[in-house]
What does this fold into?
Amino acid sequence: MNIFSQHNPTKLYFGKGQISQLSTEVEKKKVLVVYGGGSIKQNEVYEDVMKELNKAEATIVELPGVEQNPRLTTVHRGVEMCKSQEIDILLAVGGGSVIDCTKAMAIGAKYDGDVWDLITRKAPIESALPIGTVLTLAATGSEMNPISVISNWETKDKLGWGSPHVFPRFSILDPTYTFSVSRKQTVYGIVDSMSHALEHYFHRTKNTPMIDGFIESLLRTAIETGPKLLDDLTSYDHRETMMYISTTAFNETLSNGTDGGDWATHRIEHAISAVYDIPHGGGLAILFPHWLEHVLEEDPSRAKMLAMNVFGISDEGKSDLEVARDGAKALRAFWDSLNAPNRLSDYSIDDKDIELIIDKTFIKPGVGVYKELDRESVKDILIRSL
Ligand code: NZQ
Ligand code: ZN
It folds into this structure.
């Protein structure tokens, strides 16, 4: 293992009815409530949140309309509101997009220039307004991590950034709030959570049996629970399991003592989303198995472990490479069985923008840790994915 330190300051309130904790967190504060396209008004979430805020005698300001793949223009609106209305705390009510957008507003509110300077690292992030979250979709892990991903539609860039200042102070995770998530969006959530676990798994650090076993267990649980959940979208037990999986898959636990793993697939997916605005989980479902096929040819060791320890594939009479290839096939077959997208053509994407997508992938240097990719490798993965 590598030396490491861990400090995750997010307070989690997990389980049915935990919204009752909200009032103590925002007592008499001026709260900017940030949400998306209105799903929270079609279920009971908005009502529950407002009831709690009123109980806390909070002053409420609302900012609806955060897009999927949240945009810089919406961040700007939020920053302006925070500054002009002297907001004390931001409350994100939604999925990863709403939470990410809120994180960007929180840093922008404490900065005199354009928040894009902070996201692009032209200026350091020195502080942020506090944020809390009420999660309505299990997928990204944003509710318990310091990461955010923002799209600048003018320049067609989708950039991930992070800062310890934007760990949510608290996050309320009530699985019943995810009952209304559509089947398709639930599939994207399963794929995104599994991808986070998988990308942590493909590291190069030696002697990591505990973390490897933890990731394998998380993946096996997702494989067992995912199909049951899709058969019964309002099962509390299955929603609960997936919610805890998605939060744990990306709250820094899985990188303890390792080099952090290989996030090349996320880099390529963000590049595609920047150009085509496709759902994040859908893009990952297409790309990850092709990334796996690409890297296992050079080093099948981890894909072989995945095949045997997660998918129960036997190595009897097979070479390492054959077992590894069977593992990649098993992952693809599992996501296919959920009806996840498996070709870029599912989103009407062909090869015409491949060079642009490669440019966007390399917007920051260094793509990949398990295998560092060059432009040709990214092209190979994209062509396999068409
Ligand atoms: O807009 P609303 O009304 O909220 O509807 C959303 C949206 O249409 C809907 N939804 C959310 N909760 C619902 C619901 N519909 C019915 N019932 C509910 N309870 O679902 C749709 C998708 O929501 P979104 O927030 O976009 O999905 P997700 O949580 O997958 O977030 C995706 C974004 O997060 C970024 C992605 O790149 C993408 O921009 N990521 C953020 C990460 C992070 N901060 O750590 C890591 C991830 O790898 C990812 O890159
Ligand atoms: Zn993701």
